[in-house]
Write a structure and sequence with these properties.
Elements: E1 2-6, H1 11-17, E2 24-28, E3 40-42, H2 47-56, E4 61-65, H3 86-93, H4 97-110, E5 114-115, H5 118-121, E6 130-131, H6 139-158, E7 163-167, E8 170-174, H7 180-188, E9 197-200, E10 214-215, H8 217-225, E11 230-234, E12 239-240, H9 243-253, E13 256-260
Parallel strand pairs: 1-2, 1-4, 2-3, 4-5, 9-11, 10-12, 11-13
Antiparallel strand pairs: 6-13, 7-8, 7-9
Length: 262
């Protein structure tokens, strides 16, 4: 049986709808999903008890889907089953995004569950390599994409994000803790030219079973408002939600969508 630990955004809904048998939807308090209803809610201070409850329910596989903000921990609420996990939780909360995610994934696996990526249980969330829009990228866009690969690799070393905006081979914005939408909105308020791309890819070497970068129709709208010419994604490395709507929005707004081979 599959359990989906759901965060915000459309991903938990799309993963759940693609399963033959409905998964058990779970959510951490303070990071409740906005597109699906959680059947089990848990506090981070009760993580050990929550994992035991999953086992009792017959869960064998866990999928992490959706955005989750780091919770505040109330030491007085930690239960007996979670006490052995306190050092791991403390280390996770004090490390970067990638380190924190790896720690949580390790706890889940050590509890005896198989960790499944969203694109493993719903493979069609990934799009094949190629340009799927009416507008095609030009030579300058291709040069910007090459620069985007370099910028995301540098960002990965600092564990600060998975996307950037590139114009004329210069990084004009990089993703931070506030996410892709915030980055694009910040560009929309800057009258410093038009053109360029949104480039998005997994961090080099990241564990792809969780936190794979994602776009949806809103990403397209914000990229257009930011004056960008198109969106470049690493083929096989970025989840595209509501794919028909994403392609239609690109065609309507005159942007290209390029799934670029690595």
């Amino acid at each position: 049986m599959l359990a989906v630990i759901a965060g915000t955004g459309l991903l938990p809904k799309e993963v759940s709808e693609r399963q033959v048998k409905r998964p058990l939807i779970c959510a951490m308090e303070g990071a409740e999903p906005d597109c699906v209803d959680a059947e089990i809610s848990f506090r981070i201070e009760h993580l050990g008890s929550f994992l035991a409850r999953l086992k009792s329910a017959g869960v064998t596989e866990v999928c992490l889907a959706g955005a989750v903000r780091r919770p505040a921990v109330d030491p007085s609420q930690i239960d007996a089953a979670t006490l052995p996990l306190v050092p791991v939780i403390q280390a996770a909360l004090g490390s970067g995004d990638d380190g924190a995610l790896r720690a949580v994934m390790g706890v889940i696996e050590q509890a005896g569950f198989s960790l499944r990526a969203a694109h493993e249980v719903a493979p069609d969330l990934l799009m094949e390599e190629g340009v799927v829009t009416q507008v095609q990228p030009g030579a300058l866009d291709k040069a910007d994409a090459t620069r985007g690969v370099e910028v995301v690799a540098a960002m990965s070393a600092a564990d600060i994000g998975q996307c950037c905006a590139i114009r004329a081979r210069q990084a004009i914005a990089v993703e931070n803790i506030f996410g892709t939408n915030w980055m694009l909105q910040s560009l929309a308020n800057r009258p410093d030219g038009q053109g360029g791309i949104l480039f998005k890819a997994p961090k080099p070497g990241q564990d792809r079973r969780a936190d794979l970068p994602t776009i949806g129709p809103q990403t397209v709208e914000l990229a257009a408002a930011a004056g960008l010419s198109g969106i470049v994604l690493e083929a096989g490395g970025v989840i595209v939600l509501e794919q028909d709507k994403v392609i239609a929005a690109c065609d309507r707004l005159g942007l290209f969508l390029w799934l670029r081979g690595s």
